[in-house]
Amino acid sequence: MYIVMIASECAPVAKVGGLGDVVYGLSRELELRGHTVEILLPKYDCMRTDHVWGLQVSYRDLWVPWDGGAIRCTVWFGFVHGRKCFFIEPHSAQAYFARGTYYGFWDDPDRFAFFSKAALEFLLQSGKRPDILHTHDWQAGLVPVLLYEQYAGAGLANQRVCHTIHNFRHQGVTGPHILRATGLHRPEYFGAPDRMGDDLDHHAINITRGAILYANFVTTVSPHHAWEVRHTDLGCGLGPTLHRFQHKFGGILNGLDYQMWNPGQDPHIPQHYTVASVEQKAVNTAALRKRMLLRPGPRPVLSYVGRLDTQKGLHLIRHALLYALEHDAQFVLLGSGAEHGINEDFWQLKQRLDANPDCHLEIGYDEDLAHLIYAGADLLVMPSLYEPCGLTQLIALRYGTVPVVRASGGLKDTVFDWDYSERPRAERNGFVFEHPDTAGIESALDRALGLWRDAPDLFRVLVCQGMAWDFSWNHPGQHYLDIYEFIRHQ
Ligand code: ADP
Q1: What is the model's pTM?
Q2: Ligand 1 pocket mutation, candidates 136, 346, 392, 401, criterion most atoms within 8 A of CB
């Protein structure tokens, strides 16, 4: 099959969070299985071009109809660690992708609506005719709408779309001007409540809603989250729409790229190890302590790696950190947030604890350090209020770092409590708590720290059981292929 991914991120060239990992990892898996995969991305000025090999102009004058006129684009091609990527660079006064960062602008809906339109225009004009378009999140959510409303008649009639929603909180809710800009006139038709009209704001257009209506199949990133978004408020208003289209909606657990995340050959860590040589992990723990200026000693190292976003249960991360320090454990945190206020709070905490030899906070994005933390820490906390899938816990498991998580979304599908899970003992791999409050996380931390201190042999068994799980792209890759195959013949 010939598959084109259309997304706003792809690791490591343009990555903000898990979306980037998924686009890269799934594409790689599909290629390994003999399919042709190409990835379409915006050409951000801030992307990591050092991860692109052979970057060159692929298509020079792509004129993309926009807002009654047209914007000229250059399309670049390059390999990102073997993946074939096309980068769309618009030349206009709005400088849509030359803003120094990926997201966070008032006109984000315009930027990514333009990208969606440009992606289809590129396929049309360059003569590419993939079997499947796999679009990701609201940033590419207009692709299925535009495909069926505009491009099917122009030459893209045989393409089918699978749309994946990674985060329901961001739906691309915007004004009706987006319809005019993309050439979807008739606002009374497209803005109607049974089309793209937003349920909560009756004057707004909801791009994700459009994607659900028009895509041939819609997925979210774990089975439990697929249930949550239909039956709880985690669908953020889209629950009824998902019910209406449940015949073409499902949850597929994200995989982890086992080549990029492999403690047996990770170039970012000083000591390689596998499940058979897990005691070597201690060398990485020592390196982590040295790098983070922590004192040596027989204490467990707890960690957090991830975006600093309310979704992640920030008050509980903070609580876990202080709790660890009170209980003779150490804590390292690597994270950054899109909101200035949140970063500021963690900066203050960092300053307050600066002289403490048992903890270190690193506010920022650091791929190298993330690998060292996964390899060196004993435990990783993830007290998310909601978590569609979560890759961080999967990486931790792969690196023998025991996850302590709140039972939500993909965390519930992947982490099984050492003491209370209904799974057989040999399959249990972490610690889980139900309620997102301090009592909940404390009870899980007590059990985790207790096992580490009082029963090191059992803790080691737990570590090895976690490492033995297969959360690679192997199963989800096949699952996506089944979906592609199914919609291809519709
Ligand atoms: P989300 O998609 O909500 O951000 P995931 O757990 O699905 O969360 O994916 C997070 C990914 O981003 C992981 O690969 C994690 O290592 C990485 N990551 C997040 N924050 C940072 C950071 N500050 N520095 C380095 N890597 C980070």
Answers
A1: 0.93
A2: 392
